[in-house]
Predict the structure.
Amino acid sequence: MKKTIVLFLISLFTLQSCNINTEIVYHKDAASSIITDIDTREFMAEMQAMTPDSLQQEKFKDMDRFPTTWTSMYDLMKKEGKLKTENQDTVRILKKISMKSTKEGNSPVAVGYSFKMDHITPKDYELIKNFNKDEKLPFDQNLLNIWDGKTLTINTDFFNIKNIEEILQSKGSKEETEKMEGMMMMFFKNIGTTLKFENKIKSITGKHDWLKQVDDYSVRITYDLKAMNDRDAKLKNTDKKIIITTE
C-alpha cells in the first residue's frame, strides 16, 4: 500500500502549477461520493520542453505508473503483491477507493491524475480516518464534515490543505520538511471544492469569504492560497461553522 501511495504522491505533489478540483456529492441516504482531479498539463508541458529527448524516459518514469482507467486501491495493491489483509471492512473500503491517470495523444507521460471514493457511508468515514493515520490518503478535508442526509455541518477549519502538507512532510527528512513549509504555495495554482446535493438547498446559515452558493443544488469553496499562507490576512466572513439544510 505504501509503495502505491508514495508513487501516486510523487507523481502529483512534486509538481508546480497544479490545479486541483474536487467535487463532493451528498446523497439522500447520508452517504457521499468524492472525486478529485489534478491537472498537471501546464507543468508537464514546461518540463518536457526543457528536458532532452534522451532523458525524458528516465525523468518521467514515475509519472507513468498508474492506469488510465479507474482502478481500485484493492486491485493496485493486489497487483503489486502488497495486499496483506483479509479484514473484510478494509477490503471493502479499498474497493471503494480508485485512481487513474490522464494522457493526451500518444504521449506516454500523464498530464493529470484523479482520485475518487464511491458512496462512502458515515461508518466508512470512521474506517477511512483510522486507515489514513498510517497511510495518508490524499483526500479533501471537507470529506470529514458531518452529513446526515438532509443537513451538512461544515467546519471551516477544514478549508485548508493540511492533509496534503502532512503527506508531503511524512515522506521527507526533517531538513526537507522545513524547506517544504516555505514552498507549499509553489506546488499549487488553483484549488477549489464543489459541494453538490441531490435535493435543493433550503437554507445556509453562517458565512465564509471562500464559500459561495453556485445554484439551487451546490456551493463552491475557492481557496485563497495567498491568504492561507499569511497569518495576518484579514477575511470579512470567517464563521467556524456553516450549516446547509436541504429540502
